[in-house]
Amino acid sequence: xxxxxxxxxxxxxxxxxxxxxxxxxxxxxxxxxxxxxxxxxxxxxxxxxxxxxxxxxxxxxxxxxxxxxxxxxxxxxxxxxxxxxxxxxxxxxxxxxxxxxxxxxxxxxxxxxxxxxxxxxxxxxxxxxxxxxxxxxxxxxxxxxxxxxxxxxxxxxxxxxxxxxxxxxxxxxxxxxxxxxxxxxxxxxxxxxxxxxxxxxxxxxxxxxxxxxxxxxxxxxxxxxxxxxxxxxxxxxxxxxxxxxxxxxxxxxxxxxxxxxxxxxxxxxxxxxxxxxxxxxxxxxxxxxxxxxxxxxxxxxxxxxxxxxxxxxxxxxxxxxxxxxxxxxxxxxxxxxxxxxxxxxxxxxxxxxxxxxxxxxxxxxxxxxxxxxxxxxxxxxxxxxxxxxxxxxxxxxxxxxxxxxxxxxxxxxxx
Length: 415
Ligand code: GAP
What we know:
The chain is an alpha+beta fold. The chain has two domains: about 65-290, BirA Bifunctional Protein, domain 2 (2-Layer Sandwich); about 315-415, 3-Layer(aba) Sandwich (Rossmann fold), CATH 3.40.50.800. It contains 13 helices and 23 strands. It has helices at about 5-20, 40-60, 75-80, 85-90, 125-130, 130-135, 180-200, 245-255, 280-295, 330-345, 360-370, 380-385, 405-415, and strands at about 25, 40, 65-70, 75, 90, 100, 105, 115-120, 145-150, 165-175, 205-210, 225-230, 235-245, 260-265, 270, 275-280, 295-300, 300-305, 320, 350-355, 375-380, 385-390, 400. The protein has a seven-stranded mixed β-sheet with strand order 3-9-10-16-13-12-11. Strands 20-19-21-22-23 form a five-stranded mixed β-sheet, with helices on both faces. The chain is elongated and about 75 Å long. The relative contact order is 0.11. The structure holds glycyl-adenosine-5'-phosphate (GAP). Glycyl-adenosine-5'-phosphate binds near residues 121, 153 and 239.
């Protein structure tokens, strides 16, 4: 097989696993699908939730300089005029006329109806709430405002599974600084993005920084680094870090007539803060996570497919099996173990699953394919000795662990 075929093959395999195992389905599939739109199934949703929780922890909760918002998706025309999107958020068409890639809609009825847009980035809702956050919380500079949410782009050519979609999710921070502090903030977020890539389980050997040249930067940016990933279809942008200067706040101030400057009482000065923006696309993140985790190997002489997901993001953390489904004493003991794990770990967000479908080999294969880090089997020895087999997804190693020690065993890995 040629190298390129092998690579496309990897994407096809991930797409097929996602559908087979309930991660991602084509949207409106029974009507032939809908290009650029995807629906997340139970495991995709759990993976998404875990990735967002990890991002929130690293970018927001573990810091003391962050605030958060959840702004409206339908955005007033003036906001996107000030940001430059109404005039400039367009792609070239083959016949030379440019095409604005925002989805427009109309709000209200009849003559009162006003054109509005589905937001093309989460950033603008942050800028329009800058004054609200300052007035409510009186933060010191530098500080950031974070938002996770949907954004919409009417891409001319959606493609490559989750890579280029029309309905996407973004995880963004707008970090407000004094102008002279922007480089320091830029370096700080640059490091944070690398830390994130490591934590979420993206293969860091496949991530490369690209200093975006002047001619290719977005209209608002004075410096941008793209973090590119070696996707099977080429090296492409995974996420970005931009120095947006005071472009957005200044334009919103001009357009709205509302003073958006910052008052430094000690220095007795007023100025518009500058902005450094780490912007991460959720859909590309999930694709890079899946491509990094997808592995085919051999275990005990059998070929298997396994998603070596970071335990923190795996949709199911532990699956509990009775060795045999038709032995009531095994099922009873296994239910006890399952309930024990659920009542302690499950409530803090670690999904514990029950699996008694098919033989043990089949269950291991299923759990490997969805990336479950540990499987716990209750067998006849468990009834006598009060211990269980814990099997490690990546090494296949099995160890006996006393039932009372299980919680500590897993807490060590997941917390
Ligand atoms: N607020 C800055 C901003 O939106 P961007 O480079 O246009 O910058 C940021 O988008 C990130 O959003 C990208 O790095 C990418 O991860 C993701 N993204 C953008 N368009 C996308 C699309 N059509 N499909 C999937 N992800 C997309």
